[in-house]
Amino acid sequence: MRITGTGHASMRIDTAAGSILCDPWVNPAYFASWFPFPDNSLLDWETLGDVDYLYVSHLHRDHFDAAHLRNFVSKKATVLLPEYPTSQLEDELRDLGFTSFVRTKSDEVHELDGGLRVMIQALISPTDGPIGDSSLWVEHDGIRVLNQNDARPSDLSRFAELGHVHAHMLQFSGAIWYPMVYELPDSAKRAFGKQKRDRQFDRTWRYIDDLKADHVFPIAGPPCFLDDELWQFNDIFGDEGNIFPDQSVFLREYAKVGGTNGVVLLPGSVSELTRESIVTTHPVPVDEFFADKVAHLEEMRERKRPVIEAEKASWRHPEIDVLKELKARIEPLLEESIYLAKGVGGPVRFDLESYDGDAIESIVVDFPGKQVRPYADEKVRYRFRTQRALIEHLIFIDEGDWVNSLFLSCRFSAARIGQYNEFVYAFFKCLSEERLQYAEGWYDEHERSVEAEDTQLGGWTVQRRCPHLKADLSRFGMVDGNVLTCQLHGWKFDLPSGRCLTSVGHKIRAERAAE
Known about the structure:
Elements lengths: L1 E4 L5 E5 L2 E5 L12 E2 L8 H4 L4 E3 L10 H7 L5 E4 L6 H8 L4 E4 L5 E3 L5 E7 L9 E8 L2 E7 L7 H5 L5 E5 L14 H26 L3 E5 L3 E2 L22 H10 L13 E4 L4 E4 L4 H6 L1 H21 L8 H15 L2 H6 L2 E7 L6 E7 L4 E4 L7 E6 H9 L6 H7 L2 E5 L5 H7 L4 H16 L5 E4 L2 E4 L9 H4 E4 L2 E4 L4 E4 L15 E3 L3
């Protein structure tokens, strides 16, 4: 089996029974904020895109690059489609010209031509990606690989059941806006960032230990930030709180926990994998490349500057009445929302900066009141500040997922009072009828389900499944005093009261174990 690195979470897998291109991303994403690093735009995409199968793990724009899929991936390719509750991924791929699909069943092995076997595990909670994320398992001639990309399953047992995995590809770096955009003192942002960075690595080590593959490939990050306004987010300033460490940092941290089987794929790197060995060749030496990281980023910044400026020039739509249009789009969804609106529980304020940055228009999405209206000087627990032009553009393109556009762009600042509230972000990724109804149904089922099975942890009897996303606490739970931490996502619970310390809701069932 041959694995060719094509950048970020993308790779091409070649076997005697066919080739699979995974998650090709080249063009800037999220309001021209994210770029693949190392740069992959100069690869021979005409050749790389001539494949038998295409796998797009989910709709996040650093995995689903519509322009690149349209222009460079053969429409003769058969799409390996995850089993998602909505049809949006298939619909968008059909709009790009793809016509052949294998609609997989989650956790079921599918036999393709020539003895090629694949399995896709789909994650379908409203908090997984843009309503869904997935991992791809591939086997041919006894060689097995797992492309986990940035999916976060509660465990990898289903993949392990299928036999020893020879290559494991997984995320290790950040892909979020926290804590960088929050209006906090630098010292606090650094401390929170270090906690998140450490937790990212801890989660990665646990996945690696679960699967025990022969070779581990750090993928799916980090992006780089080439706009001058966002340049500080690159991990080039010695900041221990930066959440975007690169592959060279992964190798260094992995070595500290005894890891010796890491394999880095630069764009154009090729790994020849057998059941007994791996041989990897690179277009340039890996150590040398990352030693010159700053120079590479600076060169990319100058080369991509016209791309960024062209994107920025397309955002302004002064003809749009933002308040009127938001009322028309969001108020019907608020009327239909039960669980999400209750979960948010209060008004959310958006401060929109004028084109020159001098004026501010404040708009409130009032969840209890079920309306969008001008800010009325009331207290809010969540506040976002961004450029009016960005909201105009979201309205102009009828964007139904602000998480997969505005928030991941990091082109905003945020402030909140109290705990993180997942329902705020869940609602703003569900700005369509189909998505909202799915999320409401999922939360309804989730709220009504009762986990009867318990487990023993640190002198406590607790429900075995985490109330957040049902991770197995017998494996991911850690008790320190009266606080339980689920290490999969870092959520914390006060055991005597059952109260979630990380977010609103999600109470846990717990009692002291009998002596």
